[in-house]
Specification:
This protein is an alpha/beta fold. 35% of the residues lie in helices and 21% in strands. It contains twelve helices and 15 strands. It is elongated, with a radius of gyration of 21 Å.
Length: 369
Amino acid sequence: MIRVLVVDDSALMRRLLGQIFASDPEFEVQFARNGVEALDLVAAFDPHVVTLDINMPQMDGLACLDRIMVEAPRPVVMVSSLTAEGADATLEALRLGAVDFVAKPAGAISLHLDELRANLVGRVRAASQARIRSSARLRDRIRHRIGGAAMAPTTRSSAPRAAAPRRPRPAGPEPVAAVGNGLVLVGTSTGGPPALEALLTMLPADFPWPIVVAQHMPAALTGALARRLDGLCAVTVTEVGRAVPLRPGHVYIGRGDADIVVARRPAGLIAMPQAADPDYPWHPSAERLVVSAMDHVAAAQLIGVLMTGMGSDGAQAMTVLHSQGGRTIAESEDTAVVWGMPGELVRRGGADWVLPLPEIGPRLVRLAP
């Protein structure tokens, strides 16, 4: 039995979400109308998973999440509207420790109930198996346990930490990835945004190869994610909404609800969006990204990185890449929020290295000449 605490100030949403979970005997559900009630029920009900709205009276979702992750850490799935403001708040929630998110359907929710049911139940079930890293928010948890009143709650207005300095680039056109240059391909899903932050902030501004990322996300979030990472990293991070040349020291994040592929033009390699292909169940598809790159770049010049995420996206293609002389890295179970995608790569024998998240960036620096 999976105990779920549903937190939402809307009586309609509580009723609909309650109906979704009540239809599955695997779940036991209780409800809270705001963050204050939620904290009481976290202590009394001890849920395995909390679903949490963002905009609520008395105590909003971010403040409540911050308290949960410090006082009683457990998997939290954000259930919120992905407006422009909501996208930034959702990314902040992932930074604070939420393991996943589900978008509230636009318009009449009752018309999209079946779609919401499949998405929510699958993500909550996966979240119940998610690993909350013992190091996450450790300093805050210690201060809370010893009664440290100096611990200030984190809010969505908190300033991001300063990005690593970027080296001035030479004047004139930037170099495009040429035939002999390599390419790093990254696939990730659940738990991916914080993992990408941890990975990319380890890389210098002059990292010699382009990096192309397939992060499972809706389109409302990938642009905000790219902007957030660009402000934190020495490398340049952009969302790919049109065909763009691949350049060293740049990271290209596929736009959500579509796929991102690598192609070749006379001037060099490009990344470009493609309509989501139903043959690939997750989008942007890591599998499709790797397959497209192997069509245009020698396997020996490709490095595949598969990080936290449920499912198996990218594992088959990266196993083929490994067998053809490419190099592959799987995030280890010790640090992955969900060891689905990287774990499948390991099970298939397709990983050259199985590394904890803090070691992946330094290994890329050593591998890319």
